[in-house]
Amino acid sequence: MKHIGQLIAFAFFSAALSPAFAADPVYPPGLRIGIVPIEGLVVSKTFPGFETEDHSVKVLIAELPPAAYGEVENAFKTNSFPSGANAIKPESLQTAAGEGFYTVESAKDGADTVRRFSMIVAGGTFSGYVAAQVPESATKTYSDDAVRQMFASTVVRKEVPVEEQLGLLPFKITELSAFKNVRTLAPGAAILLADGDEQTGIEASSYMVIGTIASAPTQPEDRGRFAQQAAAQIPGLRDGRITMSEPLRIDGSPGYETRVEATSGKANTPVTVVQWLRFGSANQALRIIASTPRDDWSKAFPRFRAVRDGIQPR
Fold it and tell me: What angle in degrees, to the nearest 10, is found between the helix axes of 66-78 and 2-9?
């Protein structure tokens, strides 16, 4: 049950909501969850969600693991939420995406009294989370009913258009090597290219994760050790063994290639993994992780390399 409190606490904002609504659902870029925002809210440039032009109103939207919704749903059906005077128990709220579990509470944000709202909905292969906060001084204009109506408009789309996802990244990907699924892991920061999906299992087939690192070493003599440490921390790998790690040039820039033999996934699939680091200015680096079942390495590696060589700065 500890995760339920974490979900509720996730709504930590200073916000106020306008009672007039726009006509159509709006999806923050890169996300599969959208709402009909109250008039005056626009897509934020600094976080996934909406805010007013003066930044005083904020609504957060996030994607959580699929089990998050199931945990709250089970607790709701069994009435197994924590008890006590300060306990927060969700209520069922019908939304455009299906049944959601909705909470409202009064709290303190520094010296100010606020109303906090949060909701979780099922997204199939993920859980959708929406959160907002209203200062007490704004509750006459931005009522509980207005917030509830906005939350009830929550919708879920099956996938985000590839062009939209790629457009958020700080680099250009010009070659996708026929990967079947493209999914943002962190909007504007990292992306997954995969032949599998959440239902069949990502690790059971070839996939790549591409993102940036903001703490890479600037001195060449430190890069080998850094590359090996990063490879040893690749999520999802067990019994990993580094088989090679050496410097190389990637599109004219200094880089490092590290290969790992390991097992991955629920089926303990033997995999071969390659990690490429392409070092840029200051302490920035592009990190590419590519994994494939070991028997498919000879077919997958040229695809991985084609994607790598097609990545360009913006």
Answer: 110
Count of domains in the chain? 2
Predicted TM-score (pTM) above 0.85: no
Residue in the structure block whose two tokens are 């990545």: 311
The CA angle 190-196-198, to the nearest 5 degrees, is: 75
**How many Å apart are CA 13 and CA 128, to the nearest integer?**
18
Do 91 and 173 have their domain in common? no
212 and 277 in a single domain? The answer is yes
C-beta separation of 135 from 111 below 8 A: no
Considering the domain architecture, whether residues 7 and 94 belong to the same structural domain is answered as yes
Query: Which residues, other chains included, contact 14 with Cβ-Cβ below 8 Å and sequence gap of 6+?
Result: 56, 58, 109, 112, 114, 133, 135
C-alpha–C-alpha distance, residues 148 and 144, integer Å: 6
pLDDT band at 54 (very low <50, low <70, confident <90, very high): confident
Same domain, 183 and 263: yes
Q: Mind listing the pLDDT tens digit for each residue in 155-182?
A: 999 889 999 999 989 999 999 999 999 9
Which residues does 9 contact at the CB level (< 8 Å), separation at least 6? Answer: none
The token pair at 245 is 């790690």
CATH for 74: 2.60.120.1690
- Share above pLDDT 70 across residues of the chain, in percent, rounded to a whole number: 91
